[in-house]
Amino acid sequence: MGKIAALILLLFTGQAFGLADPGNLRNTVFNAKVIRILDGDTMEVLYQNTPIKIRLAHIDCPEKRRKQPFGNNAKIALSDLCFGQNVTIQAQKYDRYKRLIAVVINSRKQTVNQEMIKKGMAWHFKKYSTDPLYAQLEIEARRNKVGLWKDAKPTPPWEWRKPKPKVFFL
């Protein structure tokens, strides 16, 4: 490949400007526009004309798909925090579903992941996070009976997702 062709390729892919490859954003920080909210802890952003699914790090929200209580409320809360905004993505790694696990900062400089816990719309996902700040935010939301903590015994999403035993009648 000639020098001119290589330069055109670099300019076309954005690599000449130090931009990350949208196919591998692990451990990067970048700005993108939120174009879709899938549920309380998953969104889609547009980065370099490429849609990328983002799974919010440190938290787990009630399931919208399986109609868990507060699932739709969590989706609405996430939408209110960042839909249509240009946000900063602090990417960590990809999960088994090829979603980018990340911390998201909205246009008001709020850490969206933390705000979801403060609003009582998420649990601290201790299976994958040991961050003491998220643990403390959940304790405070529980104490104040905010959001899903208004319920006497809310079911964590990881329990809700477990297969339910089938009941057979004879």
Describe the structure.
By secondary structure, the chain is of the alpha+beta class. It has a domain at 24-141: OB fold (Dihydrolipoamide Acetyltransferase, E2P) (Beta Barrel), CATH 2.40.50.90. Helix content is 27%, strand content 25%. It is built from five helices and seven strands. It has helices at residues 3-13, 71-82, 112-118, 132-143, 157-160; strands spanning 29-39, 42-47, 50-56, 59-60, 86-94, 100-105, 123-124. The strands form two sheets. The chain has a five-stranded mixed β-barrel. A two-stranded antiparallel sheet has the order 4-7. Strand 2 and strand 3 (50-56) form a beta hairpin. The chain starts with a helix and ends in a 10-residue tail after the last helix. 34% of the residues are buried. The model is unreliable at 5-18 (pLDDT under 50).
Give the key terms.
OB fold (Dihydrolipoamide Acetyltransferase, E2P), alpha+beta, single chain, five-stranded mixed barrel, 5 helices, 170 residues, two-stranded antiparallel ribbon
Summarize the structure.
This protein is of the alpha+beta class. It has five helices and seven strands, in the order αββββαββαβαα.
Helices, strands, pairings?
Layout: H1 3-13, E1 29-39, E2 42-47, E3 50-56, E4 59-60, H2 71-82, E5 86-94, E6 100-105, H3 112-118, E7 123-124, H4 132-143, H5 157-160
Parallel strand pairs: 3-6
Antiparallel strand pairs: 1-2, 1-5, 2-3, 4-7, 5-6
Assign an overall shape: globular
The helicity comes to: 25-40%
Cα distance, first to last residue? Answer: 72 Å
Order of helices and strands: HEEEEHEEHEHH
Order of adjacent strands in the largest pleated sheet: 1-2-3-6-5
> Beta fraction of the residues?
25-35%
Unreliable runs: 5-18
| Protein structure class | alpha+beta
Compute the number of helices.
Answer: 5
Q: What's the CATH class of the domain at 24-141, please?
A: Mainly Beta
Assigned CATH architecture of the domain at 24-141: Beta Barrel
Overall residue-averaged pLDDT value:
89
The total beta strand count reads 7
Task: Write down the Rg.
Answer: 19 Å
CATH T-level topology of the domain at 24-141: OB fold (Dihydrolipoamide Acetyltransferase, E2P)
Main β-sheet description: 5 strands, mixed, barrel
